Amino acid sequence: MGSIEAGLVYKTTSEIKGPILIIENVREVSYDEVVKIKRPTGEEVTGSVLDVSKEWAIVQCFGDTSGLDLDVEIRFTGDVLRIPVSEELIGRVFSGSFQPLDDMPLPLSTDLRDVNGGTINPAARDVPSEFIQTGISSIDGMNSLVRGQKLPIFSESGLPHNQLAAQIARQATIPGKEEEFAIVFAAMGIKNEEADFFRDEFEKTGALGKTVMILNLADDPPIERIVTPRIAETIAEYLAFDLGMHVLVILTDMTNYAEALRSISIAREEIPTRKGYPGYLYSDLATIYERAGRIKDKKGSVTLMPILSMPAGDITHPVPDLTGYITEGQLILQRELSLRGIYPPMNVLPSLSRLMKDGIGEKTTRKDHSDVSNQLYMAYAEGTRARGLVRIVGVVGLSDRERTWLEFADQFEQRFVNQGPYENRSIEQTLSLAWALLAILPKEDLIRIRESYIQEFHPTNKRER
Amino acid sequence: MSLVGKIERINGSLVVSQFEGEPKMGDLIEVGNLKLMGEIVRLSNEIAYIQCYEATSGLKPGEPVLDTGMPLMAELGPGLMGAIVDGIERSETDLWELTGPFVSRGTNISPLNRDKKWIFEAKVNVGDRVSGGDIIGTIQETASFEHRIMIPPGQSGVIKSINSGEYSVTEIIGELETDSGIINLTLMQRWAVRRPRPIRERLPLNQPLMTGQRVVDTFFPVAKGGAAAIPGGFGTGKTVTLQQISKWADADIIILVGCGERGNEMADVVAHFPEISDPRSGRKLIERTIIVANVSNMPVSAREASIYMGITLGEYYRDMGYDVVVLADSTSRWAEALRDISGRLEEIPAEAGFPAYLADRIAEIYERAGRVQTLGTDERLGSLTLIGAVSPPGSDFSEPVTTNTLRFIGTFWALDSELAYRRHFPAINWLRSFTRYMGVASEWWSAQDREWEEMRAKALSLLEEASQIEETARIIGEKALPDEQRLVLLMAEMFREGFLVQNSFHEVDTYCEAEKQAKLLKIMIEFYNTVNPLIRKGIPIEKVRELKIVKTLMRLKENRGVEPINSARLEIQYETDELAKEYEVK
Fold this sequence. Notes:
With about 475 residues, chain A is α/β, with parallel strands linked by helices. Chain A is built from 14 helices and 21 strands. Chain A has three domains: about 10-80, Beta Barrel (Thrombin, subunit H), CATH 2.40.10; about 85-360, Rossmann fold (3-Layer(aba) Sandwich), CATH 3.40.50.12240; about 370-465, Bovine Mitochondrial F1-ATPase, ATP Synthase Beta Chain, Chain D, domain3 (Orthogonal Bundle), CATH 1.10.1140. In chain A, the strands form five sheets. Chain A has an eight-stranded mixed beta sheet, with helices on both faces. Chain A has a seven-stranded antiparallel beta sheet with strand order 1-7-4-5-6-3-2, with no helix packed on it. A two-stranded antiparallel sheet of chain A has the order 8-10. In chain A, β4 and β5 (about 45-55) form a beta hairpin. The longest helix of chain A has 25 residues, at about 370-395. The termini of chain A are far apart. With about 575 residues, chain B is an alpha+beta fold. In chain B, the strands form five sheets. In chain B, strands 8, 18, 19, 20, 21, 22, 23, 24, 25 and 26 form a ten-stranded mixed beta sheet that branches. A six-stranded antiparallel barrel of chain B has the order 1-2-5-4-3-6. Chain B is globular, with a radius of gyration of 28 Å. At the A-B interface, β5, β11, α6, α7 and α10 of A face β1, α1, α4, α6 and α9 of B.
């Protein structure tokens, strides 16, 4: 971001606490303005103005503040944070504050974009409705993803959310179309080896050439994470709405992002709400998630897949909770399933895709898709209820009907949810598999499926025909 | 008369400004060189605190601010039907054309289109004495919506001139001679959004709002002019339920306020409502719908204003004598906006960081619902029904927004994530929900079917009994229960699948007319009354469960009309007779 060199320099810092600096006697400073803070080593760290009056400005520093003294040089740049965008960004690797990490210079471009982006006018939004086949049955069959959707993965440490995200990035296609996704990958506070995993994955499949990586790793300055996802999405918006590409944005891990936001809030002594997070966490997360979508009369799309870890597996934790209220559904991974060796360990019951209804059906997948999905949910819910009963009354205490539900649930997990990390199932395969499993149940119990579809698609009927 | 001041400080959406002179609380302010919109939320000696409706990036201390001397007003007049506007009533379609697909700042456009001409038909004559609320003429705004032009509240006098013809909203259609001089009449009026529009009299509620959703209409109805809340965690179906109500409610006007919610959901309504027809009038739903869309990544303070905007629009149509439903999704986001501003004003927080006046503000909002006799001499009746979604953090219903909302509403639809997980939609929990409008609803339903009240009570008691029995079954297993209790479980299942579950994407089941609801309820109870004695006489529950009619009853809802229900009655008789014969019981 070294594009703006002008600006007033101050050495009037009166207080440094954590990531926050208070600078006195400032003039002509604007809200949200970018500042450059000169470290003793001579290198410049970026910050931005959080609060400004006629006399002072409060600045958040995106780098490490240790080693700074009150004589630190602060340069106000006179502009909000912008990054240069061009087609040459594709294939590049940058730090969490947009410094090149691949020994190449910053792209030369006069096209500078505000990283905070804008709000897509709701009237200009196009309803996302293009079904994305991920090749993963528990997603395609029951939580279908569409282009322009924001669908997070809620996970816990130690679960294979990275493998899943990589598999989705690798396999995602629109049936009948050849266009591939460009990928914008933003890491926030993840470990080096996790970032390496993604880089290797993208390299192996040749996806690296259409990937932009923005990496803030676990040992990088935590406050830098405030800008990392915004840089990623500014690039994604450019690729999608200027160059007409279909972009998949992976943001991991959003919980680390929220923690950075929390430390700023605490340093500013704001009134905390749940677990010390600021009251504006919802609105702040929305400014990141809502940038996904499609725009009428524009070819491209931004599909967003944030990954976040639920501390102690708690889905009511503020980060997953508020995320779920903003995103269009959620995919939830569960430790228990993982322990049983099921990959992906998708806890399908609380998982959801809100935009599924627009992406599936006769025109895109198959007309029975919606009913089959509803029936799988219901049957699996009955099966897990029966499984709970077994713990108390034993299998002998179950009615015949409950035993069938239980049998279904076991088979469903083993054959439908469970698949290989390189197994790519077509939507036809997924739906056939679903019917094969539903055939375990008596036809009378397929209450969520229209009778005409049972006639047409039930395996026993198929054989008779 | 407008005052000029200078910015002292900018802290997020809060701008502090010095003023010479006396600005008023609630005054609308143009902030900075960009002329961003804002509103005064606190005053102290020569200092005004302004909540800004637009992002404040780039503002500098010292930039000018301008007090317009007026509070935030809604422009009321023809041209809003089918529109999508933001929290301060700017047409988002116009903004899009003007500034591109991303919302830009400081774009000052008039809410009502100034160029469009409307065909106005005068309904009063020169010399007529009129006062606030009197209808002076009409405009056919859409194929089936008659826009009634009224004298604004507080004005009265004698019509000096009035002419039918083609007018834009600001052109003069006539003159009114009042005690204090002559006033020009136009098609448009303005109203401050935070002030309820005046009425002649509040009236008792007398009719349920029919929504075509069985669990709502039959079990937990809301009255026309009543207030309802629908709290639920994410994924429990708040939005889909509200959308279903906005599609099928038997109201004249629907106002959908997307308050801090998803942009794609708003786009979905805009895309699909023009395709769907109202089952009663046959007209397109969009022709009776206004969308106020303030999405989650728009500034929070405009979110705070959007609910008042939606309600004020609703009151205007109510005053014409229409039944209006205002749906707000979600009031929690509105409350969070209050919290955000309160925090920046450094007010001492009460519970969960919310300001101490949260309950008062919630009460003010819900009290604007009601059935009224409007102003005007023709004794018009109108109603405004207010339905608010609540998004409790961590699905915890004991949080302040949910608990304070429950104090001021009449119907409570409690959403249940367990039901949502089994794709039981609408996921309204029948044991935790309540309605205070049962008296009104019973009267209406009993006019359709005299036994209705009894049947509803029976159904609810079976469902309640089933939940008790399920508790036991969880310990000893269903098989160990006596058959009579297992019959209750079977009935509960049949009610769930055959009545309570309603697939909003099913071409028939998405809407269920009242007659069909009553008949479905009745046939379920009849089935219970027929088989219960058989079970008591020793016929095993498995035999009853195997009856073909059980499945038929659960699928009756998928059929169009009520004819299949009538024929199922014969089936019940036939199959149970056969069963009785087999076991030789009478």
